[in-house]
Structure formats: structure tokens, C-alpha cells
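Late entry, written up from scratch paper. The run itself happened at the end of the previous shift, but nothing got recorded in the book at the time, so transcribing now.
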Amino acid sequence: MNAVKRLEMFQRLRAANPHPTTELEYDTPFQLLIAVILSAQATDKSVNLATRRFFLQHGTPQTLFDLGEEGLAEYIKTIGLYRTKARNVIATCRMLLDLHGGEVPREREALEALPGVGRKTANVVLNTAFGLPTMAVDTHIFRVSNRTGLAPGKNVLEVEQKLLRNVPREFLLDAHHWLILHGRYICVARTPKCPQCGISDLCDFKPKTAA
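Output as recorded:
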């Protein structure tokens, strides 16, 4: 995909959805961080159903830490890997309280030092909570980037680096959300919905799904 097509691609995505955002529900950077940790190998819908039950009373580092690992596990047991996630979340709360005054750090290194937080989670928080032009490459973005020819790569880091180079600067802040939503609802894994796709004529994918 050449630069002209990439520009047109994001112009169309912006026209269709001018203000994209995450489908995770949150009110604070801390709640976003916890929701993203819980969303690993889980759907946003399942995470939202769980966090609605405890964010109101346990939506800060201190109140969630006070709830404890077993208490949190009861709220999130419908989510995959819930015991590991409960342990990581409570440990993260402790680190935020002990090292960061209960605030979510804005630096990648500090975020990635938190239990259960990898590069992808850090990128989501930096982008969505703090407005930095990062690229959190999940399975949807990895698929869309390779299938369309936008930023082909053999691993998530390679795709992330190519996206940061290839996405026109004016679209960098929102590109993460557009690409996730496109992969989640249109450019799906098994049978992409090419007839419903607003950028299919720009895409390098050859065996397009017929109408």
C-alpha cells in the first residue's frame, strides 16, 4: 500500500468515525489500566460486565487494594485467567500506591514495570488516557496491517514500528482505535466482510470476499 492509498484510507476511516475510542468502560486512567489488564485474552464486553460490578466502590488504587486478591477474584471469575489477573491487579495497586502516589505513571518504562502490564497495555494507556500517538498492536491490528498491506510484519513489534512510520501524522492519535474496530467488525479473521468495507478498493488483499 503506497502513501496515497494510506492517506485515503485514514481519511475514510475518520469520515466514518470522527471520534473513535476504546470500547472498554472507565472513568479514570487507573480504571482504564485495570480494564486493559483484565482484557488480555478476553473480550471488552466481558470485562465491562465485570468492572461495572466493582469500579463504583473499588475504582481507586487504595480501595481496590483493600478489596484484596480473593475479593477481586470473585468479581472477575467470569474472565479468563482471572486468578492470575487478580494477583497482578492487586500487585499493581500496591506499586502505584508505594511508588507513584496512587497515580498512573505517564512513562512507558514505569508502566511496563507494573505486574500484568506489557508493551501493548502500556501503549493503550499512553494513547487513550494520556493522548500520546502510540500503537497498541493486538491480534486485530496485526491482521489488518498485514492483510491490507498497510504495515506488514512478522511480529507485533515490527508491525508497530511500521505503523508509526506509515500512518500519516495527523491520524496517529486515533489510528489505533480505527484499526482495532475495523479488525473487530469488518476485517474479521475467517471471512472478512469485504462487501461492507469502506476501504476495500485500497486494500492489497487479493482473495476478497464476494458479495
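The first helix runs from residue 3 to 16.
(Scratch paper discarded after transcription.)
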